[in-house]
Design a protein that fits this description.
single chain, Na+/H+ antiporter like fold, 78% helix
Length: 433
C-alpha cells in the first residue's frame, strides 16, 4: 500500500511539474529558444540534482510515461517518412546518412580507444576489450534524436528541402543505428568473451530484425483498423497510445522469457516496430490525414511530458565527474557531424548554403542514444554502468546544445513559417510544438 501511495505521489508531483514546464516552454519561445529546451530546463531544475521536486527513482516509477511517449514519437517519426515527399530528397538523404555514419562512427570509436588510459573503467583492460567498448561508444555517438527534431519542426511549422532532408536523415538514421548497434553489440560480446566470431551471432541479429519487421507490419495493419473505425477521435487516440505501450510490454516479456529458458535473449526493438507501423499507415493506406490529425492534436502534451521527464532523469553529478571526457567526445562528434554532413551534401549536389549549415541539424541526441546506453549497462554489468554514465554525459551536452542550433539552421535556410502565417493557421489548427 505504501508503494502504491508513493507511486501516486510521484505521478501527482510530475503532473504539477509538467504543467509548470508547459508555461516555461512558452517563455523560452518568447526569448527565441526552442520549446524543447524549456521542457528540458524545467525537468533539470525540478529533478533530484537541484530542487528535488521529483525523487531519484521518479524515472522508474514513471517508466510508462517514457514508453508511451517513445511509442508516440516512433509513430510520428514513421509518419514523417512520407515517400512522396522524401523521394525528391532521397539522394541527399542517402549521401548524408552515409557521410554521418562513416565519419562519426570512425572518429568516435578511434577517440574512445585513444582516450582509454584516461577513462577509469578502461585503464586496466586489454586492447581487445578496449576495441569492444570503443565500437559501442562509436555507434551510440552516431544516434540522433527524431523526437527533438520533430518537435522543432512542428514548433516552427518548417517546410522545405533543407527541413525535409534533415528530418529524413534523422528519422531514417534511427533504423540504421538500431541495426548497426545490434551488429556491433554482438561483435563486442564476442571480443569481450574471447569467443571466435560466429555466424550464430549474425543469424540471431537477422532473426531479431525479421521479427521486428514482421511485428511492425502487423502493428501497421492494426493501426489502420483502429483509425478506420467510426468512433470518437479521443478514443482512437487512447487505443493507439495503448497499442504502442503494448509493443514495449511485449518486447520486455519476450526478452525475459528467452533469457529464462535459453542461453541468449531475443531483443525486439519496440521503437523500430512502432516506426514501421506509422510508416505503413501513412504510406499504404487512405487514412494518413486522420492519423496525422490525431498525432498533431496529441503531440503537445506528449512532448511536454517526455522532455520534462528526460530533463529530470539527467544525472548532473555524472556529468560533473566525467565532464572532460564528455567534452572531448562531444567535440569529436561535432567534428564528425560537420565532416559527414558537408561531404554528403557535396556528393549529393545540394546547394552550398544548405551544405554549410547542415551540421547544425544533426547534433541533438535523446531517446535512442539514452536507450542504447542503458541497454549496454544491462547487457554488460561489470563495466556497463560506468560506460552508460559516460555516454549519458555526452548525450546531455548534445541535447542541451542541439535544439537551439537546429532552430537556428531552419531560420538560416528560410524555411520557418512566418509569424503572421502561424497566427492565421492557429485559428484553424491546434498549436503543435
Amino acid at each position: 500500500m505504501q508503494s502504491y501511495q508513493e507511486t501516486l505521489a510521484v505521478i501527482a508531483g510530475f503532473g504539477l511539474v509538467a504543467l509548470a514546464s508547459k508555461q516555461i516552454g512558452q517563455f523560452f519561445v518568447q526569448i527565441k529558444l526552442p520549446l524543447v529546451s524549456g521542457f528540458l530546463f524545467t525537468g533539470i531544475i525540478a529533478g533530484p540534482s537541484i530542487l528535488g521536486l521529483l525523487p531519484v527513482d521518479a524515472a522508474n516509477g514513471l517508466r510508462f510515461v517514457d514508453e508511451v511517449s517513445l511509442a508516440f514519437i516512433a509513430f510520428a517519426a514513421g509518419s514523417e517518412l512520407h515517400l512522396k515527399k522524401l523521394r525528391k530528397r532521397f539522394k541527399s538523404i542517402t549521401w548524408t546518412i552515409i557521410g554521418l555514419v562513416i565519419s562519426t562512427f570512425t572518429l568516435g570509436s578511434m577517440s574512445t580507444f585513444l582516450l582509454a588510459d584516461f577513462i577509469p573503467f578502461m585503464k586496466e583492460m586489454s586492447g581487445t576489450n578496449r576495441v569492444a567498448i570503443s565500437i559501442l561508444a562509436g555507434v551510440i555517438l552516431v544516434a540522433r534524436s527524431p523526437s527533438s527534431a520533430i518537435a522543432i519542426v512542428k514548433e516552427l511549422r518548417a517546410n522545405g528541402p533543407f527541413t525535409q532532408t534533415a528530418l529524413g536523415v534523422t528519422v531514417i538514421m534511427d533504423v540504421v543505428v538500431i541495426i548497426f548497434f545490434a551488429f556491433n553489440s554482438s561483435v563486442a560480446d564476442a571480443l569481450l568473451t574471447n569467443l571466435p566470431f560466429s555466424s550464430g551471432f549474425i543469424f540471431l541479429v537477422l532473426t531479431e530484425l525479421l521479427l521486428s519487421l514482421s511485428l511492425g507490419y502487423a502493428l501497421g495493419k492494426s493501426l489502420q483498423f483502429i483509425v478506420s473505425r467510426r468512433i470518437g477521435r479521443n478514443l482512437k487516440t487512447v487505443i493507439i497510445l495503448m497499442a504502442g505501450y503494448g509493443v514495449f510490454l511485449f518486447s520486455d516479456i519476450i526478452r525475459d522469457l528467452t533469457h529464462s529458458r535459453w542461453s541468449f535473449e531475443v531483443l525486439l526493438e519496440p521503437l523500430l516496430i512502432c516506426m514501421i507501423g506509422g510508416f505503413l499507415l501513412s504510406n499504404y493506406s487512405q487514412y494518413r490525414h486522420e492519423f496525422m490529425t490525431i498525432l498533431h492534436r496529441t503531440g503537445p502534451p506528449i512532448y511536454t511530458a517526455f522532455f520534462t521527464l528526460t530533463g529530470a532523469s539527467l544525472m548532473l553529478d555524472v556529468l560533473a565527474e566525467t565532464w572532460m571526457i564528455a567534452l572531448i567526445l562531444f567535440s569529436v562528434r561535432l567534428s564528425g557531424i560537420f565532416l559527414g554532413s558537408f561531404g554528403g551534401g557535396i556528393l549529393a549536389g545540394d546547394p552550398m548554403r544548405h551544405t554549410r549549415i547542415g551540421w547544425m541539424a544533426y547534433i541533438t541526441q535523446a531517446g535512442i542514444g539514452l536507450g542504447l546506453a542503458k541497454e549496454v549497462a544491462v547487457a554488460f554489468p561489470g563495466w556497463g554502468t560506468a560506460f552508460s554514465s559516460m555516454m549519458i554525459s555526452v548525450i546531455v551536452l548534445n541535447q542541451i546544445v542541439g535544439p537551439p542550433f537546429f532552430k537556428w539552421a531552419i531560420y538560416l535556410a528560410g524555411e520557418a513559417l512566418p509569424r503572421d502565417d502561424t497566427r492565421q493557421l492557429a485559428t484553424k489548427i491546434p498549436p503543435a510544438l
